[in-house]
Amino acid sequence: MSIYCNENVSGKNLKKDDWVVSNECEQIAFGIASGCNTALIGKETDMVSPSLFAPTVEDAMRFIRAFSEVT
Q: pTM for this structure?
């Protein structure tokens, strides 16, 4: 599992267990299209449907860490 936090992932070879964490809908959309997990930072939006909405990067990372311990 790799976590890409606020990175441009458009040129990366994403895997299903990877996470794209970003406040940019375009990066989240690319992650969704690649079939990996996504966390949108900020307020909910109708533009994309990420795996998770989180108010901050820290909150998203806490969730991802807890999720990885369970699975």
A: 0.90
